[in-house]
Amino acid sequence: MGQGLWRVARNQQLQHQGYSGQGYLTRDPGRRLATNSISNTNHRKQAQGGIDIYHLLKTRKCKEQEGFINLEMLPPELSFTILSYLNATDLCLASCVWQDLANDELLWQGLCKSTWGHCSIYNKNPPLGFSFRRLYMQLDEGSLTFNANPDEGVNYFMSKGILDDSPKEIAKFIFCTRTLNWKKLRIYLDERRDVLDDLVTLHNFRNQFLPNALREFFKHIHAPEERGEYLETLITKFSHRFCACNPDLMRELGLSPDAVYVLCYSLILLSIDLTSPHVKNKMSKREFIRNTRRAAQNISEDFVGHLYDNIYLIGHVAA
Protein backbone atom coordinates (compact mmCIF):
# COMPACT_ATOMS: atom_id res chain seq x y z
CA MET A 1 0.00 0.00 0.00
CA GLY A 2 2.78 2.42 0.94
CA GLN A 3 4.78 1.55 -2.19
CA GLY A 4 1.71 2.17 -4.40
CA LEU A 5 1.17 5.66 -2.93
CA TRP A 6 4.87 6.39 -3.39
CA ARG A 7 4.67 5.49 -7.11
CA VAL A 8 1.60 7.76 -7.62
CA ALA A 9 3.35 10.69 -5.95
CA ARG A 10 6.51 10.05 -7.96
CA ASN A 11 4.62 9.97 -11.28
CA GLN A 12 2.93 13.27 -10.47
CA GLN A 13 6.30 14.79 -9.66
CA LEU A 14 7.76 13.61 -12.96
CA GLN A 15 4.83 15.01 -14.92
CA HIS A 16 5.41 18.42 -13.35
CA GLN A 17 9.08 18.21 -14.35
CA GLY A 18 8.22 17.50 -18.00
CA TYR A 19 8.39 13.63 -18.22
CA SER A 20 5.61 11.38 -19.48
CA GLY A 21 4.83 7.71 -18.96
CA GLN A 22 6.87 6.92 -22.10
CA GLY A 23 9.86 8.67 -20.54
CA TYR A 24 9.50 12.16 -22.06
CA LEU A 25 6.65 14.55 -22.93
CA THR A 26 6.06 15.09 -26.64
CA ARG A 27 5.29 18.78 -26.18
CA ASP A 28 9.00 19.70 -26.34
CA PRO A 29 10.75 17.76 -29.17
CA GLY A 30 14.04 19.60 -28.78
CA ARG A 31 14.28 18.85 -25.11
CA ARG A 32 13.35 15.21 -25.79
CA LEU A 33 16.20 14.73 -28.29
CA ALA A 34 18.71 16.37 -26.01
CA THR A 35 17.64 14.24 -23.09
CA ASN A 36 17.83 11.08 -25.24
CA SER A 37 21.40 11.98 -26.21
CA ILE A 38 22.38 12.53 -22.59
CA SER A 39 20.75 9.22 -21.62
CA ASN A 40 22.63 7.31 -24.33
CA THR A 41 25.89 8.94 -23.26
CA ASN A 42 25.24 7.93 -19.64
CA HIS A 43 24.53 4.35 -20.70
CA ARG A 44 27.81 4.23 -22.63
CA LYS A 45 29.72 5.60 -19.65
CA GLN A 46 28.14 3.02 -17.36
CA ALA A 47 29.03 0.25 -19.79
CA GLN A 48 32.61 1.46 -20.11
CA GLY A 49 32.91 1.42 -16.35
CA GLY A 50 32.31 -2.36 -16.37
CA ILE A 51 32.02 -4.36 -19.62
CA ASP A 52 31.06 -2.80 -22.94
CA ILE A 53 28.10 -5.11 -23.67
CA TYR A 54 27.63 -3.70 -27.14
CA HIS A 55 31.23 -4.35 -28.08
CA LEU A 56 31.09 -7.83 -26.54
CA LEU A 57 28.01 -8.84 -28.51
CA LYS A 58 29.46 -7.42 -31.70
CA THR A 59 32.69 -9.35 -31.21
CA ARG A 60 30.77 -12.55 -30.48
CA LYS A 61 28.73 -12.11 -33.66
CA CYS A 62 31.91 -11.67 -35.68
CA LYS A 63 33.35 -14.83 -34.14
CA GLU A 64 30.22 -16.78 -35.02
CA GLN A 65 30.46 -15.57 -38.60
CA GLU A 66 34.12 -16.59 -38.78
CA GLY A 67 33.34 -20.16 -37.58
CA PHE A 68 35.08 -22.44 -35.06
CA ILE A 69 38.23 -21.10 -33.48
CA ASN A 70 41.52 -22.29 -35.00
CA LEU A 71 43.13 -24.70 -32.54
CA GLU A 72 46.57 -23.96 -33.96
CA MET A 73 46.27 -20.41 -32.58
CA LEU A 74 45.80 -21.72 -29.03
CA PRO A 75 48.52 -22.93 -26.66
CA PRO A 76 49.36 -26.60 -27.44
CA GLU A 77 48.26 -27.78 -23.98
CA LEU A 78 44.81 -26.27 -24.46
CA SER A 79 44.48 -27.66 -27.99
CA PHE A 80 45.38 -31.18 -26.86
CA THR A 81 42.92 -30.93 -23.96
CA ILE A 82 40.10 -30.03 -26.37
CA LEU A 83 40.99 -32.84 -28.78
CA SER A 84 41.27 -35.39 -25.95
CA TYR A 85 37.47 -35.32 -25.57
CA LEU A 86 36.99 -36.67 -29.11
CA ASN A 87 36.50 -40.32 -30.01
CA ALA A 88 38.55 -42.02 -32.72
CA THR A 89 36.16 -41.15 -35.55
CA ASP A 90 36.00 -37.46 -34.66
CA LEU A 91 39.75 -37.34 -34.12
CA CYS A 92 40.31 -38.69 -37.62
CA LEU A 93 38.01 -35.99 -38.98
CA ALA A 94 39.87 -33.35 -36.97
CA SER A 95 43.15 -34.51 -38.51
CA CYS A 96 41.83 -33.31 -41.89
CA VAL A 97 41.98 -29.75 -40.51
CA TRP A 98 44.65 -29.91 -37.81
CA GLN A 99 46.87 -32.75 -39.01
CA ASP A 100 49.80 -32.21 -36.67
CA LEU A 101 47.61 -31.77 -33.60
CA ALA A 102 45.11 -34.59 -34.20
CA ASN A 103 47.81 -37.11 -35.14
CA ASP A 104 49.71 -36.57 -31.90
CA GLU A 105 50.80 -39.86 -30.34
CA LEU A 106 49.67 -38.93 -26.84
CA LEU A 107 46.08 -38.49 -28.01
CA TRP A 108 45.98 -41.89 -29.69
CA GLN A 109 47.79 -43.51 -26.79
CA GLY A 110 45.05 -42.23 -24.49
CA LEU A 111 42.35 -43.63 -26.77
CA CYS A 112 44.04 -47.03 -26.88
CA LYS A 113 44.50 -47.34 -23.13
CA SER A 114 41.05 -46.02 -22.27
CA THR A 115 39.41 -48.68 -24.46
CA TRP A 116 41.86 -51.58 -24.08
CA GLY A 117 43.37 -51.13 -20.65
CA HIS A 118 45.99 -53.85 -20.97
CA CYS A 119 48.02 -55.10 -23.92
CA SER A 120 51.35 -56.87 -23.84
CA ILE A 121 52.75 -54.37 -26.33
CA TYR A 122 52.30 -51.53 -23.82
CA ASN A 123 55.12 -52.96 -21.70
CA LYS A 124 57.55 -53.52 -24.57
CA ASN A 125 59.93 -51.26 -26.40
CA PRO A 126 58.01 -50.04 -29.45
CA PRO A 127 59.32 -51.36 -32.78
CA LEU A 128 60.60 -49.09 -35.50
CA GLY A 129 57.79 -47.13 -37.12
CA PHE A 130 55.37 -47.86 -34.27
CA SER A 131 52.28 -45.65 -34.12
CA PHE A 132 49.49 -45.60 -31.54
CA ARG A 133 47.07 -44.55 -34.24
CA ARG A 134 47.90 -47.69 -36.21
CA LEU A 135 47.71 -49.72 -33.00
CA TYR A 136 44.20 -48.37 -32.36
CA MET A 137 43.10 -49.53 -35.80
CA GLN A 138 44.58 -52.99 -35.16
CA LEU A 139 42.94 -53.25 -31.73
CA ASP A 140 39.60 -52.25 -33.20
CA GLU A 141 39.98 -54.78 -36.02
CA GLY A 142 40.98 -57.50 -33.56
CA SER A 143 37.99 -56.78 -31.31
CA LEU A 144 35.61 -57.05 -34.25
CA THR A 145 37.27 -60.33 -35.23
CA PHE A 146 36.96 -61.62 -31.65
CA ASN A 147 33.26 -60.76 -31.57
CA ALA A 148 32.78 -62.89 -34.68
CA ASN A 149 35.19 -65.70 -33.75
CA PRO A 150 37.05 -65.53 -30.40
CA ASP A 151 39.87 -67.88 -31.39
CA GLU A 152 40.59 -65.96 -34.60
CA GLY A 153 40.49 -62.70 -32.68
CA VAL A 154 43.07 -63.85 -30.13
CA ASN A 155 45.27 -65.22 -32.92
CA TYR A 156 45.04 -61.86 -34.69
CA PHE A 157 46.24 -60.02 -31.57
CA MET A 158 49.14 -62.44 -31.22
CA SER A 159 50.11 -62.18 -34.89
CA LYS A 160 50.37 -58.39 -34.58
CA GLY A 161 52.45 -58.65 -31.41
CA ILE A 162 49.70 -57.00 -29.35
CA LEU A 163 49.26 -59.96 -26.98
CA ASP A 164 51.68 -62.62 -25.77
CA ASP A 165 50.67 -66.26 -26.01
CA SER A 166 50.05 -66.55 -22.28
CA PRO A 167 46.81 -67.29 -20.38
CA LYS A 168 47.67 -64.60 -17.86
CA GLU A 169 48.16 -61.95 -20.56
CA ILE A 170 44.95 -62.94 -22.31
CA ALA A 171 43.09 -62.81 -18.99
CA LYS A 172 44.41 -59.30 -18.26
CA PHE A 173 43.37 -58.17 -21.73
CA ILE A 174 39.84 -59.51 -21.23
CA PHE A 175 39.58 -58.04 -17.72
CA CYS A 176 40.52 -54.52 -18.91
CA THR A 177 38.48 -54.50 -22.15
CA ARG A 178 34.79 -53.61 -22.47
CA THR A 179 34.36 -53.92 -26.25
CA LEU A 180 34.22 -57.73 -26.38
CA ASN A 181 30.90 -59.45 -26.99
CA TRP A 182 29.92 -61.13 -23.71
CA LYS A 183 28.24 -64.10 -25.41
CA LYS A 184 31.35 -64.89 -27.45
CA LEU A 185 33.50 -64.28 -24.40
CA ARG A 186 31.45 -66.76 -22.38
CA ILE A 187 31.99 -69.42 -25.04
CA TYR A 188 35.71 -68.68 -25.14
CA LEU A 189 36.15 -68.90 -21.36
CA ASP A 190 34.18 -72.13 -21.23
CA GLU A 191 36.73 -73.61 -23.65
CA ARG A 192 39.82 -71.96 -22.13
CA ARG A 193 39.64 -72.85 -18.44
CA ASP A 194 43.27 -71.83 -17.99
CA VAL A 195 42.39 -68.28 -19.01
CA LEU A 196 39.32 -68.43 -16.75
CA ASP A 197 41.47 -69.36 -13.74
CA ASP A 198 43.75 -66.35 -14.27
CA LEU A 199 40.76 -64.09 -14.90
CA VAL A 200 39.19 -65.05 -11.55
CA THR A 201 42.41 -64.27 -9.66
CA LEU A 202 42.38 -60.70 -11.04
CA HIS A 203 39.28 -59.91 -8.97
CA ASN A 204 39.72 -58.39 -5.52
CA PHE A 205 36.69 -58.96 -3.27
CA ARG A 206 38.26 -57.74 -0.06
CA ASN A 207 35.75 -56.13 2.38
CA GLN A 208 32.88 -56.54 -0.09
CA PHE A 209 29.45 -57.79 0.86
CA LEU A 210 28.82 -61.18 -0.73
CA PRO A 211 25.98 -60.19 -3.12
CA ASN A 212 27.88 -57.11 -4.30
CA ALA A 213 31.01 -59.17 -4.93
CA LEU A 214 28.95 -61.69 -6.89
CA ARG A 215 27.52 -58.89 -9.04
CA GLU A 216 31.00 -57.59 -9.80
CA PHE A 217 32.14 -61.11 -10.68
CA PHE A 218 29.30 -61.69 -13.13
CA LYS A 219 29.87 -58.26 -14.63
CA HIS A 220 33.21 -59.46 -16.01
CA ILE A 221 32.40 -63.15 -16.39
CA HIS A 222 28.80 -63.46 -17.51
CA ALA A 223 26.77 -66.31 -16.10
CA PRO A 224 25.27 -68.86 -18.52
CA GLU A 225 21.59 -68.66 -19.26
CA GLU A 226 20.95 -72.19 -18.00
CA ARG A 227 22.20 -74.23 -15.09
CA GLY A 228 24.96 -76.64 -15.86
CA GLU A 229 28.55 -77.59 -15.30
CA TYR A 230 29.91 -74.19 -16.39
CA LEU A 231 27.77 -72.31 -13.84
CA GLU A 232 28.87 -74.67 -11.09
CA THR A 233 32.48 -74.08 -12.10
CA LEU A 234 32.05 -70.31 -11.96
CA ILE A 235 30.44 -70.39 -8.52
CA THR A 236 33.09 -72.75 -7.20
CA LYS A 237 35.92 -70.52 -8.43
CA PHE A 238 34.19 -67.43 -7.08
CA SER A 239 33.66 -69.04 -3.65
CA HIS A 240 37.33 -69.91 -3.27
CA ARG A 241 38.42 -66.48 -4.46
CA PHE A 242 36.01 -64.69 -2.11
CA CYS A 243 37.28 -66.70 0.86
CA ALA A 244 40.90 -66.02 -0.14
CA CYS A 245 40.22 -62.27 -0.23
CA ASN A 246 38.41 -62.22 3.14
CA PRO A 247 40.11 -64.73 5.47
CA ASP A 248 39.30 -62.77 8.66
CA LEU A 249 35.62 -62.46 7.75
CA MET A 250 35.41 -66.17 6.97
CA ARG A 251 36.83 -67.06 10.36
CA GLU A 252 34.53 -64.60 12.12
CA LEU A 253 31.40 -65.95 10.40
CA GLY A 254 32.59 -69.54 10.42
CA LEU A 255 32.20 -69.86 6.65
CA SER A 256 34.03 -72.20 4.31
CA PRO A 257 34.18 -72.18 0.50
CA ASP A 258 31.45 -74.83 0.48
CA ALA A 259 29.20 -72.63 2.63
CA VAL A 260 29.83 -69.63 0.35
CA TYR A 261 28.98 -71.87 -2.60
CA VAL A 262 25.60 -72.68 -1.02
CA LEU A 263 24.95 -69.00 -0.31
CA CYS A 264 25.76 -68.03 -3.89
CA TYR A 265 23.32 -70.57 -5.28
CA SER A 266 20.68 -69.34 -2.81
CA LEU A 267 21.26 -65.76 -3.93
CA ILE A 268 20.90 -66.67 -7.60
CA LEU A 269 17.66 -68.56 -6.96
CA LEU A 270 16.33 -65.72 -4.81
CA SER A 271 17.21 -63.21 -7.54
CA ILE A 272 15.22 -65.19 -10.08
CA ASP A 273 12.32 -65.58 -7.68
CA LEU A 274 12.07 -61.87 -6.83
CA THR A 275 12.68 -60.47 -10.32
CA SER A 276 10.89 -62.94 -12.58
CA PRO A 277 7.39 -61.84 -13.69
CA HIS A 278 6.41 -65.50 -14.03
CA VAL A 279 6.75 -66.13 -10.28
CA LYS A 280 3.55 -64.95 -8.66
CA ASN A 281 4.18 -65.98 -5.06
CA LYS A 282 7.48 -64.33 -4.13
CA MET A 283 9.70 -65.88 -1.50
CA SER A 284 9.44 -64.09 1.82
CA LYS A 285 12.39 -63.17 3.98
CA ARG A 286 11.42 -65.76 6.58
CA GLU A 287 11.25 -68.50 3.97
CA PHE A 288 14.65 -67.56 2.56
CA ILE A 289 16.25 -67.62 6.00
CA ARG A 290 14.71 -70.98 6.81
CA ASN A 291 15.71 -72.62 3.50
CA THR A 292 19.25 -71.22 3.55
CA ARG A 293 19.98 -72.20 7.14
CA ARG A 294 18.65 -75.65 6.42
CA ALA A 295 21.40 -76.06 3.79
CA ALA A 296 24.11 -74.24 5.79
CA GLN A 297 23.40 -74.50 9.50
CA ASN A 298 26.40 -72.54 10.78
CA ILE A 299 25.26 -69.27 9.16
CA SER A 300 23.66 -66.73 11.47
CA GLU A 301 20.07 -65.67 10.90
CA ASP A 302 20.95 -61.96 10.83
CA PHE A 303 23.58 -62.46 8.09
CA VAL A 304 21.13 -64.38 5.90
CA GLY A 305 18.52 -61.69 6.51
CA HIS A 306 20.95 -59.03 5.27
CA LEU A 307 21.50 -61.11 2.12
CA TYR A 308 17.77 -61.12 1.44
CA ASP A 309 17.51 -57.35 1.97
CA ASN A 310 20.32 -56.73 -0.50
CA ILE A 311 18.65 -58.71 -3.27
CA TYR A 312 15.25 -57.19 -2.50
CA LEU A 313 16.55 -53.63 -2.65
CA ILE A 314 19.28 -53.77 -5.31
CA GLY A 315 18.19 -56.61 -7.59
CA HIS A 316 19.57 -59.62 -9.45
CA VAL A 317 23.15 -60.67 -8.76
CA ALA A 318 23.71 -61.95 -12.29
CA ALA A 319 21.70 -59.46 -14.33
UniProtKB/TrEMBL annotation:
Classification via SUPFAM superfamilies: F-box domain, Sec7 domain
Superkingdom field: Eukaryota
Protein's GO biological process: regulation of ARF protein signal transduction
Keyword Hydrolase attributed: no
Keyword Membrane tagged: no
Residue ranges constituting the SEC7 domain according to the UniProt record: 138-314
Residue stretches making up the F-box domain: 68-111
Full protein name: F-box only protein 8
